[in-house]
Amino acid sequence: MKRVVITGLGVVSPLGCEREEFFTNLLEGRSGVEQITSFDCSGLRSNLGGIVKGFEPGRYLTPEEQIKTGLSAQYAIAATAQALEQSGLLQNGVAPRDIGVSLGTTMGEAQVTYQIDQVAALKGIDQVPGQLYLQRPPGAMATSLARKFGFGGPNNMIPTACAAGNYAIGNSFDLIQSGRVKAMVTGGADCLSISAVYGFNRLNSLTPDQVRPFDRNRKGILVGEGAGILVLEEYEQALARGAKIIAEVLGYGISCSTYHMITPDPQARGAVSAINKALQRAGVDKNHIGYISAHGTGTLANDKAETKAIKQVFGDRAGEIPISSIKSMLGHMMGAASAVEALTCALVVQRQLVPPTINYQDPDPECDLDYVPNYARKAEVDYALSNAYAFGANDSTVLIGKFQERRQ
Amino acid sequence: MKRVVITSCGVVSPIGIGHEQFLKGLQAEPPSLTRPSFFETKGCSEEGVLELVGFNASDYIEGKGLRSLDRNTKIAMAATSLALGKSGLSEEQRRKVGMVLGTMFGSMTSISDFNLESIQNGPLSVSPMLFPNTVINSPTSQVNIRFGLSGLSATLSSCNTSSLDALGYACQMIQTGMADALLAGGSEELCSLSYHALDRFKLLGTAEEDHPPPAEGAAILLLEEFDHAVRRGSPILAEIRGQANTFAPDQKTDSQNALQRSIEASLAEAGLHAQDINQFFSSVSGFPWQRRLTSALVARLLPNAKTMRKDLQRYLGESFGALGSLTLAAALGPLNDQVSNANGPEHILLGGVGYFGNASALVLTRSQTWGEA
């Protein structure tokens, strides 16, 4: 079996559109949440969201490309450009034709979809510009990205809602580990979705102020946006071309609780299964897990169920593992969320620094683990788990390890 | 490498519901086209569609709660129910099965209806009940939940190759041990937006004009790890020997090359040579020039392959992401035809390249246990 290493990371997020800016802000416990001004939020439980700021599409796309490319794909392209630059993948030895793409999303090009429906409703369906139709299929995000960089390898779009980034990383891991491809650009992207904000509002899932994962007074999520991209490579190739290896993807697990379309399984069966599958696939002893990036949405049901899953898998040791939810700072970046969280795990194992869960004030007796409250900390982390769960009972976990030349 | 076999098939198609009826439909006269019965086509070319006329999901799915499901979900669910019904899986075995569905759009109708409600009546008027239908994985997950399929749930949405790629993804899941058995395939609904989009790009028309009619349907296959199928004594319909997908960054100049790379990679995974392929089924819709390019490539690359059922598009239509799995369901016919099987095909290749440049190929082999089941 081939080893799969991470050689590039790129991010577009509410906490910055550059990798280092993003991670510094995470460690400083800053909030990327602010008022939504791009559409009407009057009368909603909240008018806040995790909004991308300072995004400059002109750095990555020509004006003509911007017209032809939806905002979700633009975020993914910008994050890819950063990740490719860091990896040096295109500079030394790898033909773009041999590079694949696997992306996750929840809504695809949600703003394009909304625009089409707006034109159809207000002017008539025959007035919908043809260009919008071309951006409408979710798969167009992955094809736009591949076209931009000339990637001719496998091209997969995996829209498994808020766990989609993990699914895409897992898919890329499989393709490289099995020897089908030597390098993949993978992750997830979503732009701010009007329908997601309105839908979560009607589910009473929007918090009126801040996201407080695992806190007793948590009241829900805030919808966010952005993209997280990882360059994954077959280890021998990365070694041969002298790439700087950030971390290693060791395994992943996906499962399905079948409990409910929206509500997490209170018994957390799918979540437990996903973690166990990831540990088994990676061949890593659960006692060596040093950090967990939680799905941690900040809803009552999710945080309670996720805590239960972690306790069930790790037993008495659950309380010793630092667990944080970076959604407390970013909001819920939908299909990008788990990609950005996995990317964060790669930085955690590389730098041995764990980001906090901010807005944590009042412990919940039913969520009684170490959530790294409010302040980042140093920690010895050889192996990190990144959990992500989603609408439709999609449960997933990715396991990322500190890079070691010889793996035990 | 673990072997992956197909042990059951459920089809919902305008030419027949159930795999046997579907195969019979392929032998009958081409189906009549109708005007869409549930959306307006005002201002568009009126060429007709292949619609599931009179389709009633409750004829195939037991229990309540179907009303809030969208059309694509009901189609996928009915096809899954048919596949499970013929699978011989016990309740316990079924719970471990997962679902991998390919769909190019999910349900565009669900998403648009949700958006239209807020556009016309404000954000507070949207239905929380219908919100979950707006995620693209909704059809897949609804199927998982309805049938208690807890193995895993995944959705592939790689444009026209969605279901071929979903089948490839499912094979990978079985080969890596993530699951022993998975339902996989594709599903698509007819809808106003896709019809208008085809019209906008002058892709509406009849097969005679080289454009397949807009269509809907689903084909869901039960894939199993070979030993798993043998242990439970299941008949084996065929084996998936290889699958690969690639991309054409420049559609015009790279489409042929991308498809060639997919075909070569799928053959390599299958451990077969190009001359081993007996039949080719075009299974990805695309522009007419892409279909012609595919034919030319197959003639050059697969010297012993007969291109089968060139009229298939007239029967299956432009069913977008579902077309690959529907074509696979069609290919199971000749592979399992007891009358002609002595001289029938041993290895079939399915593939093609789509509107957006996605190319995919899949190698299907006649079951070596054929006749022993």
Automatic annotation (TrEMBL), chain A:
PROSITE patterns (alphabetical): KS3_1 (PS00606), KS3_2 (PS52004)
BP-aspect Gene Ontology terms: fatty acid biosynthetic process
InterPro entries given in the database record: Beta-ketoacyl_synthase, Ketoacyl_synth_AS, Ketoacyl_synth_C, Ketoacyl_synth_N, PKS_Beta-ketoAc_synthase_dom, Thiolase-like
The keyword Membrane belongs to this UniProt entry's keyword annotation: no
Pathway(s) annotated for this protein in UniProt: Lipid metabolism; fatty acid biosynthesis
Family: Belongs to the thiolase-like superfamily. Beta-ketoacyl-ACP synthases family.
SMART domains: PKS_KS
NCBIfam families per record: PRK07314.1
Top-rank lineage group of the source organism: Bacteria
Key words of the record: Transferase
Domain Ketosynthase family 3 (KS3) intervals: 1-402
Single GO MF descriptor: 3-oxoacyl-[acyl-carrier-protein] synthase activity
UniProt name for this protein: Ketosynthase family 3 (KS3) domain-containing protein
